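Any chance you could type out a protein's amino acid sequence plus the matching backbone structure tokens because I've never seen that pairing?

——
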Amino acid sequence: MDGADEGKAPESTGEEALHELLMAPDAILEGLPDAVVASARDGRIVFVNSRAEELFGYPRQELLGRPVSILWPERVRARYLRNAELYFNTEHPIRFTAEARGLRRDGSEFVGEMSWGIVETTGGPLLLAIGRDISARRANEARLRAVAAMGEHALGAADPAELSAKAVEVIMATLPADGAEVVLAGAEVVARAGNPEPVALCLRIGDDDELHVACGRELAEDEMSALRAVASTLATALARLRAEERMRHEAVHDPLTGLANRALLRDRLDHALARSQREGGATGLLFVDLDRFKDVNDRHGHAAGDAVLVELGARLRGAVRPTDTVARYGGDEFVVVCEQVDEGVMRTLAGRLLEALRAPITTARGVHALSASVGVAIGHHDAERLLSEADAAVYRAKAAGGGRAEGPAAPGAGHAESPGAPGGAQADPPPPPGQPPKR
């Protein structure tokens, strides 16, 4: 032997290294990052690694020799045992990966992703199961799906309360929450489930709304992320719904007074006339035109005039019935649509309007005393004719000195007067068709 090689250990060949590796299977299985359980044909556990001890909550010596079925929930044991018997009796080795239910020592269940296979040993075949707990991953996936479904629902939802209820439902179904509620601006609780008190978490939804959640434990990071996603989805959807509602409102309401505009007035009038034709009863119109309102703008400025119009609009709403529609027709003109009325009701409503408008109005520029002329019309079907008759009645009221109501132009319809107004005042004839009345 060469002196240079003296005292040097002989190198192992690749086959010898593999042989040494296979001589220590316990070490290999112990070093795996997953739980390993091996059971014999009779169902007894013959090997578990440390990861399996951690996963199932049993010390190793307590598991060895016991039935492998103690690691499965009772509801699936019979099926799993039949499958194990099938695996052992299969002629060719079987290997596959599937989800399986596991049972811990404390009685809690988990979802495992397990790889199964029959391994031949000198002591006979063994069923080897290698896997890990994927319950947290599955729960997080379920949360993500629920949040995504909530987002899709939000695209079609048209009601903040419905959307808030969906958010609370998602939280209660996917998070360890004892209770949850959505509180919109003004401390209005629109959705609640469980007992959200005491509030453990308070998440802002937009500028003025809040999401309250009570939890039995501190949420994990992925759970907290899901909760933030719910809050963000809800905030975005509520903002969109409110913007759409604001646009719809602005499309049919006067921006100064908040009353119905001409478009909504015509819709309500057509609806009232259709009801009159279906159910009987009459539809009434009260056409209100302020007397000498131009003087307010000329003497005190348009800001004072706007303040007067806002106050008058509020008074008109307060003087009529809740079912009546008050609209700003234009400038200093207002129209009230009244459903299911008769002449007596219309005379009463006209008098209430005149009385409500008679009280002085105080603005930053002073005190303003105003009156109004009111035209009354009653009909059953023709909206244009009803508006024309009410307008003509206003002309007669103004021609008679203002501060009064004139009744329907139709013969025998009667005459509506304000309290104290001279009865039977003569009025100039209405203007020819197409010519506006002189006011």
Notes: The first strand starts at residue 35 and ends at 39. Residues 409-439 have pLDDT under 50 and may be disordered.
